[in-house]
């Protein structure tokens, strides 16, 4: 059996999707060690993993892309802040490799310094992405522009030209600092962000249909393993209030990592105040700054495991984070998607294309428009349930574990 070292960014949205596959690997007899920031350390241990804390100086470097106005400025700022963590991650993960002598390394996509350390180690490793596959491909719209698929010669031309533009935009924001990290580790410079994505022995994508478009030219090292759905153990008190008689629940969520999306929470409170629903608003890192209290048909919480809520929810209002989107689709709950930034506009587009919900652009966000969007979403239950059946059939922890075991067996011959 193999020793597997996992390095995760210090974010719930990046740890949670790792859990099903890692738990399956442990059930198969492998030893999994997770290196993660202090904030998520106990969550990793509660999930059953041997875990150690990453250098606290890493998480102390905040990602403040939300402070910028333009999307291009947000991209540059976000990558700049994450790459500032890189030298610390590279050193920290180098220590973790020395301590645990792994047979296989799995690195979260946001930990750029750890990807450099993993590649420089010469050991088999996988790059794990808990979001959509950003590679261009035949019939695939340019990543990040939230465009509808377009067939025919015009669509193919659009996709090729705009995908190249997106690639250059990411290259300017990412490669100078990433290549400096690589040079310090004795690795060659990269010419494209695509080279970074494909640098590992495996690129493991923690999603699949219906959010991923069908591909005919997927690179051989890419594995789409389907949605990986997990909530932390129910340690947040009594949830019997969910089953009290009353109007149906609408779940409103903001990002688990602060993204200045209180605007969505405030608009949802006003939009749904007089609607025949009960509203559960989970604010996570925005809880202390939003200034919203429970009243009327509104219940405000910092955090509630989404699984029990989705079993009872009629709709979800969300910033279009990948975690809540996949959980909502799996539960057959229609989504009112209001993307703020990062990968969220692209995720919202995929929600629409999957028939799992509707979108309201942030520049159009008002209580009145959001109310109409939620009403439209509430009427989409049959389509959302059909999308959920496709998502549940597309994979899970076993497929993630299969991809890891395949790599171990292929590279070092460890019996699986």
Which secondary structure elements does this structure contain, and how are they paired or packed?
Blueprint lengths: L2 E5 L4 H4 L3 H9 L3 E6 L1 H9 L3 E4 L2 H4 L11 H14 L1 H15 L3 E5 L3 H10 L3 E5 L22 H33 L8 H5 L4 E4 L16 E3 L24 E5 L8 H11 L5 E5 L4 H4 L7 E4 L4 H5 L2 E6 L3 H9 L4 E3 L6 H11 L2 E3 L7 H12 L2 H13 L3 H16 L4
Parallel strand pairs: 1-2, 1-4, 2-3, 4-5, 5-6, 6-7, 8-9, 8-11, 9-10, 11-12, 12-13
Helix pairs in contact: 2-17, 5-8, 6-7, 10-15, 13-16
Biggest sheet architecture: 7 strands, parallel
Cα shape: globular
Q: State the strand order across the main sheet.
A: 3-2-1-4-5-6-7
Q: Quaternary state, please? A: single chain
Strands, count: 13
CA gyration radius, whole angstroms: 21 Å
Helix content: 40-55%
Low-confidence stretches: none
Order of helices and strands: EHHEHEHHHEHEHHEEEHEHEHEHEHEHHH
SS-derived structural category? alpha/beta
* Average pLDDT number: 92
Straight-line distance between termini: 6 Å
Number of helical segments with 4 or more residues: 17
Which strand-content bin applies to the residues? 5-15%
